[in-house]
Amino acid sequence: MDNVYFAPYPGKDLCPAGITEEERTDYALFELNKLLKYVVYPEDVACIYMEPVMGEGCYVVPSKKFVQSVREICDKHGILLIFDEIQCGYGRTGKMWASQNFDVVPDIMTVGKAIAGGLPMSAVISTPEIMDKWPVGTHGTTFGGNPCISDVRGIGLMVAIEFSHEDGSPAPDIWAKVKKGCLERHMLTLNCGVNGNGMRFATPLNVKKEEIDEGLSILEASIQAL
């Protein structure tokens, strides 16, 4: 994609192997600063767009140092910081917004999914100073105006599991067997992560303890059956 640049997220599978969490943070920040020094000038960067907690990458929770450092880099160069909280926002992490776990306030935030309990609604949240600069008609939507086809259903409720072989290598084959076992016991699951070996749990905020216990029992039985 033209004029879009990518920097690594400090996840285990997204950084060099064998380094610690602190070293992954330093590596990701080093690569971001290198990008802004050698690939694109900071004054040519409109925004940095990121998930404060990575969703599709199997719920990678970065360090507070990383998120705060990205905020500092944006402030230093006059770059807008945009947080994608569509998956991690609205109470999922134990706070209203995931960014609150890192004591960071973004300039713009995109939200959806949980804010409407299953209804097709999303939103862009920002300050009047930023939003008032948009000409009328600029803001469209790809997740709105759809028919309501179901009933309304509603770091706390964002949990993920990664399956690995004894040598530590990713095991998407094991996940596939666990998935089959869960399906046979009437529970649907979905994999995630760059290696397809992760399983994530993101229940509605109104989930009952009995429902969680039932799901965990199904998962346990499926793993024990391997």
Using brief descriptors, characterize the structure shown:
226 residues; alpha/beta; Aspartate Aminotransferase, domain 2; Aspartate Aminotransferase, domain 1; 2 domains; four-stranded mixed β-sheet; three-stranded antiparallel β-sheet; 7 strands; 29% helix; 13% strand; globular
Q: Your description of this structure?
A:
With 226 residues, this protein is of the alpha/beta class. The chain has 2 domains: 21-131, Type I PLP-dependent aspartate aminotransferase-like (Major domain) (Aspartate Aminotransferase, domain 2), CATH 3.40.640; 159-224, Aspartate Aminotransferase, domain 1. It is 29% helix and 13% strand. It contains 5 helices and 7 strands, in the order H-E-H-E-E-E-H-E-H-E-E-H. Strands 1-2-3-4 form a 4-stranded mixed sheet. A 3-stranded antiparallel sheet has the order 5-7-6, with helices on one face. A hairpin with a 5-residue loop joins strand 6 (191-192) and strand 7. Helix 1 runs parallel beside helix 2 (64-77). The radius of gyration is 20 Å and the shape is globular.
